[in-house]
Amino acid sequence: MEVIDIQHISKRFSDEVVLNDISFTVQKGEVVSIIGPSGSGKSTLLRCITHLETIDYGSIIISGDTMVRTDASRKVLYADKKTLQRITNRVGLVFQNFNLFPHFNVLRNITEAPVHVKKMPLSEAREIGLQLLDKMGLADKADAYPYQLSGGQQQRVSIARALALTPDVLCFDEPTSALDPELTGEILTVIKNLAQERMTMVVVTHEMAFARDISDRVIFMDDGLIVEEGPPSQVISNPQAERTKKFLNIFGAQSNR
């Protein structure tokens, strides 16, 4: 079953083409990592999937429901508000910089969306929230506030918050980029555990070894294009495209310093 079906999407900001005829699918239970240099369009792609940005052309289908399509006259047509809400609830997004509500404690950060978006009873939302905190190794932090947590703990709360809406797919936008190196490992472990549970995920990452270990498929993007796509054994370990080879060589040289 295709959880995400993207066909020929394009996006520009003013005169800059950020996404140029992007097409790919994500199957249920699949982990797809997206790699590439800064400015290649990776984060914009995630924002289009989660409807934080609109597209200029193409179509996006989530779990069989059309979020947006383009008609024969090249007019972009988004679904109605109610349908969009249903679709976007199926896609969780974990941001680079946590985006927790500073004035809410940890448990309320997790329960706020299930209660107000999904109209879940507070008692049920709290039960789910506590289970997720336990899963994240944060059972003792329910009453803490974000400022009392380390960056790694805050990011684990962000992951729990996204999971609380029981999404069909979970998207990560450079989930470790705001963390000190010593905190990166705990987040990568959480994502690896989710991958072992066959959570459908799209992960934008600069951690090449991590992408190689967890991914069913890797997409390399550059200049708004998908340059190469395939299993990690190909794209990361034995890339075919010269642009992919150049990127990985530079990346390897930098990471070894």
SS-derived structural category: alpha/beta
Oligomer, anyone? single chain
Please count the beta strands (DSSP E, at least 2 residues each).
Answer: 11
Note the run of SSEs as H and E. Answer: EEEHEEEHEHHHEHEHEEHH
How far apart the termini lie comes to 43 Å
Residue-averaged pLDDT = 93
Helix residue percentage:
25-40%
Strand order of the largest sheet: 7-8-9-3-10-11
Sheet-strand content, in percent, reads: 25-35%
Overall geometric form: globular
User: Major β-sheet, in short?
Assistant: 6 strands, mixed
Descriptors:
257 residues, six-stranded mixed β-sheet, alpha/beta, disordered C terminus, 9 helices, 11 strands, single chain
Structure description:
With 257 residues, the protein is an alpha/beta fold. The protein is built from nine helices and eleven strands. The protein has helices spanning 42-49, 81-88, 106-116, 122-135, 151-163, 181-196, 208-214, 232-235, 242-255; strands spanning 2-13, 16-27, 31-35, 57-62, 65-70, 76-78, 91-94, 169-173, 201-204, 217-222, 225-230. The chain has a six-stranded mixed beta sheet with strand order 7-8-9-3-10-11, sandwiched between helices. A hairpin with a 5-residue loop joins strand 5 and strand 6. Helix 3 crosses helix 4 (122-135), helix 3 (106-116) packs parallel to helix 5 and helix 5 (151-163) packs parallel to helix 6 (181-196). The longest helix has 16 residues, at 181-196. The chain is globular, with a radius of gyration of 18 Å. The N and C termini lie far apart (43 Å).
